[in-house]
Structure formats: C-alpha cells, structure tokens
Amino acid sequence: MSEITTVSTVEGTPLSADELDRIHAYWNAANYLSIGQIYLLDNPLLQEPLTLEHIKPRMLGHWGTVPGLNMVYVHLNRVIKQRNLGILFVTGPGHGAPGIVANTYLEGTYTELYPSITQDKNGMRKLFRQFSFPGGIPSHTAPETPGSIHEGGELGYSISHAYGAVFDNPDLIVTCVVGDGEAETGPMAAAWHSNKFLNPQRDGAVLPILHLNGYKIANPTVLARISEDELNKLFIGYGYQPYLVEGNDPKFVHQVMAATLDKALGDIQAIQIEARSGSAFTRPR
After folding, report:
1. Sheet holding 172-179: strands in order across?
2. Thinking of the domain 17-275, which architecture would CATH place it in?
3. Low-confidence ranges of the chain (pLDDT < 50)
C-alpha cells in the first residue's frame, strides 16, 4: 500500500443510467436552491421576469465553491447508503453554506426542524430571503443549520479538525473539502502533515478533497495554476495518493466522481484491513 504511483483519473462508470439521472437532478436542484439563497429576495421559481426588486441589495456566499460542495454531498450520500458508512463531512469553504443549507432543505431535515420553511414556493421564498439577511441566518454554516456541530470563521483549520475527529475513532471516515483559497494559508500548509500521526490500527481515516475552482475572494489561486504533474508530486510529497476529478460535462464528472470515491474508499478499507490484521505494516500513503 506504500508504493508511489500517480493516478490522474480513476476509470469506470459505476452509476447506472437511472442513478446518474437522479444524482444529476438532485445536484441541479441543490445548485438552484443555493444560488437562490445568494441572490433572490423574491420570485423564487422565476415564474415572472426577473427585476431588480427580486435581487438582494447585498450578497454574501461564494457561488464558485457551492457546486463542488453539492457534488461531494450527493456522492457521499450514495456511498453512505451503499456501504453503510459513518462519515463526517467537514467543509473548509465557510461561504459555501448555501450549499449545505440547500441539501438539508432537499432532504427534508430543514423543514422538519423549521416547519415554516415549507417545501413549496412560499417555503423557498423564506429559505432564500433568510440567508445572510436581517432576522435570518448567518452566511456560514452556523449552529442553526441541521447537523452542523461547529462553525469556525477562520480559514486553514478544516484538515486539523478532520484528523482530530478520527483519532481513536476507528470506524469514522471524515471527508474534508479544502478550498483552494484556504489551501494557501499557513495553518493548512502544516495541517496536511497530520497524516503522519494517524495509526490505521486504532484511528479512523481522513479523505481530503482539494476543490480547485481557480479563485479565492479577489484573485487567482496558486494550486489551480500549477501543472497537474506538479500538483500530483506536491501531494505525493505530503504523503497522499492523489486522484484527479475534472471535466466540463457534469454527467461525465458524476461518473468520474463516483468511480474515484469508490476507489478511495476501497483504498482506505484495504489499508485498515492490513493494519488491523496484526501483521507488520508501513505508514500508508
């Protein structure tokens, strides 16, 4: 398991046509609910021509990170149900909160806890209007969000939290999304090395996902501007086995994402089985 190889794309099409259509439809719905929270005060279903009065006067929430978070969320739901896994989802990009709120609304959890936010046109209007708005909810995934247990507010600590959660917690997998703006912080540069302290005999596993959408708040990011070869070598040097998921056709990306998650979870399972078998093992990549 410690052999160094570079894999750019995991091949395979694990999703059936029906699964692919349902995952894609869910992802589209989550994206729409997310962008509605960022931009809309009214006209939630766009049933009339969009006017300035329908748009929020001040917008918070970073749209660029949201489709990636929504894609990870729906694909994690697939593997959680398929493999009966215990997974904690850590999201480093704080202003990606519209995506997390959107998913809890789609699942029905949001309405269960907040019955006034109904799953209809009026409920969507309230959902959109309340985001980062006076008397509403914060622009980060705050304690009010169903399932949220911590809200940081400072970039660079998501990977540290992820590793801290799996120490002495052998059955837990933490999937941690790191935005490429966050990836440039000092705390994150050190936190990538937390894998040296993980013991697969008694600890859980961390599956980091570096989301390279290319930009931070005001300018381009470094890791999205280097070559694929350089990026792979950087993370191999950190002690990881990198896999690349990218593409322009969302349905193609869904298949690649599903295949890559299956491969990564298979890697994790193999590492843990070997380490917990009682035989000698080397630090896994």
Report:
1. 86-91, 172-179, 205-211
2. 3-Layer(aba) Sandwich (3.40)
3. 1-7
